[in-house]
Amino acid sequence: DTEVTQTPKHLVMGMTNKKSLKCEQHMGHRAMYWYKQKAKKPPELMFVYSYEKLSINESVPSRFSPECPNSSLLNLHLHALQPEDSALYLCASSPSGPPYEQYFGPGTRLTVT
Amino acid sequence: GQQLNQSPQSMFIQEGEDVSMNCTSSSIFNTWLWYKQDPGEGPVLLIALYKAGELTSNGRLTAQFGITRKDSFLNISASIPSDVGIYFCAGPWAGNMLTFGGGTRLMVKP
């Protein structure tokens, strides 16, 4: 099973709202990732968790707050977003060692109004 | 991160034709990954390559790991309408981080 699930599939939120994106995998992977993807562009890395610890934060604004409650779950908490944050948010997971093949979830389409 | 150059950026093909695309880098990679992304969905891993010169198939798709370890190629034989989408090459660097090519958008004429 190489499935990564994400909820919700679509999210519309106002700039003053607080919402969360959720991601789950049951492949035993110990590395999990959040990406942001704009139309017609490749995914852009936001955060990396390795063994439930944040290992990479690619200078993401603090209005995005990741959380890894356990080895299977990854959340992304959203607060006071801007319209330019509208994008497809992708979660991925991989083994913590080589060959680092990443498996992606279906994404959450976020629209900030 | 390292930059991957993917070409062509987009292509129209006639159903039944073969398709070729490639990915090049100025740096050596030890692994090449090819993903396909349908509109509104996440990328799906198609083929992973681990050794220079390796040729791997997945149905009508065949990918090759270039012998210089700085390039990779993806071929699709006898294209069909469901091959439409964006194809990304990717390579791991600095451990478990991936760098992506800009993508090849495949559009099939019915």
Structural commentary:
The complex is a heterodimer of chains A (113) and B (110). Chain A is mainly β. Chain A is built from no helices and eleven strands. Chain A has strands spanning 4-7, 10-13, 18-25, 31-37, 44-50, 53-57, 64-70, 73-79, 87-94, 103-104, 108-112. In chain A, strands 2, 4, 5, 6, 9, 10 and 11 form a seven-stranded mixed β-sheet that branches. Chain A has a four-stranded antiparallel β-sheet with strand order 1-3-8-7, with no helix packed on it. The radius of gyration of chain A is 13 Å and the shape is globular. The mean pLDDT of chain A is 94. The radius of gyration of chain B is 13 Å and the shape is globular. Chain B has no helices and eleven strands. Chain B has 110 residues and is mainly beta. Chain B has strands spanning 4-7, 10-14, 19-25, 32-37, 44-49, 55-58, 61-65, 71-76, 85-93, 97-100, 104-109. Chain B starts with a strand and ends with a strand. In chain B, 0% of the residues lie in helices and 56% in strands. The model of chain B has no long low-confidence stretch (mean pLDDT 93). In chain B, strands 2, 4, 5, 9, 10 and 11 form a six-stranded mixed β-sheet that branches.
Summary keywords:
heterodimer, A: 113 residues, mainly beta, 7-stranded mixed beta sheet, 4-stranded antiparallel beta sheet, globular, B: 110 residues, 6-stranded mixed beta sheet, 5-stranded antiparallel beta sheet, 0% helix, 56% strand
